[in-house]
Amino acid sequence: xxxxxxxxxxxxxxxxxxxxxxxxxxxxxxxxxxxxxxxxxxxxxxxxxxxxxxxxxxxxxxxxxxxxxxxxxxxxxxxxxxxxxxxxxxxxxxxxxxxxxxxxxxxxxxxxxxxxxxxxxxxxxxxxxxxxxxxxxxxxxxxxxxxxxxxxxxxxxxxxxxxxxxxxxxxxxxxxxxxxxxxxxxxxxxxxxxxxxxxxxxxxxxxxxxxxxxxxxxxxxxxxxxxxxxxxxxxxxxxxxxxxxxxxxxxxxxxxxxxxxxxxxxxxxxxxxxxxxxxxxxxxxxxxxxxxxxxxxxxxxxxxxxxxxxxxxxxxxxxxxxxxxxxxxxxxxxxxxxxxxxxxxxxxxxxxxxxxxxxxxxxxxxxxxxxxxxxxxxxxxxxxxxxxxxx
Length: 391
Ligand code: 1QQ
Fold this sequence. Notes:
CATH superfamily of the largest domain: Response regulator
Distance between the termini: 35 Å
Largest sheet: 7 strands, mixed
Bound molecules: (3S)-3-methyl-2-oxopentanoic acid
Number of domains: 2
Strand order of the largest sheet: 7-6-8-9-10-14-15
Shape: elongated
Number of helices: 12
């Protein structure tokens, strides 16, 4: 059965209504700490107390391909911020092991025990629909740095994202693929069991309709599937110009490998989940020609990008990816929100995260509106000779 993402959003909205009263009463006011508001403005802001920032990432299991990079990117940024200014951040990072139960426990720990000022993460949209409801009812600002499904900022006014929505990534990658490949009829293969990939399916069909591209094969599978022969047989019979794929790397790797093994040469087009060197490395030659819509490219000449890449590579002995870049940017956005009123209390961070205007980041100019939604330019890349190349 296809998972309806609108139901996740509707559940979250219902939970929000149920808890709306206690948010304004208990949430923020109860946790206001005068030692977290400092003196001086902007770059001169100095805060006596250490500012605790929580993060929940998938450091193990299926989404570790992204979570481990996020952890490194976030830590690098806070290390830089600690070295540069008079606000001292302590980052408390929890592993949600790519499951909802651990993600929820991690949010609860950070909110109640560690009493953090804000939380970054979780890695997957599939966890965000539950955990963000908790953050919202506790009055703790949460900033997604990779949660791209529809309906996430709408969970509540404490919920923000600095992660390019998948709708925007696909609205860039599909037309770019059409222009490059002249595609007219395609197969759509999607994971119907994950919130992010199911949400992306809605966007894919909308964008294909807008572009006048015909869907001749429309097949689903589930996140942990390993045999895609039934779906791929249909793709072979249809002789399509391209395959639009909505999947996490765990399914993408066997699916694309099996497609190439069967002799399917049609180019494959996707969004944010494909912007990963782990995925490209695991696919090897089968990654050639993959078209990827995403939030960041190593080749972008955005402010600080070259410095970020070299600092990251030096510190971690591997090159960063989009997930590292977004987490790094998330740390700087939280710092901007703290500096706006020189106040690291939850309520001040919440008020100021929703007013980020064209911050000059390594992702390019980035804004977050009052509704928690991000605005930034997408970037479309193609894998050529094993490397991401801007299309
Ligand atoms: C989401 C995503 C994933 C690709 C993050 C790793 O975009 O779950 O929303």
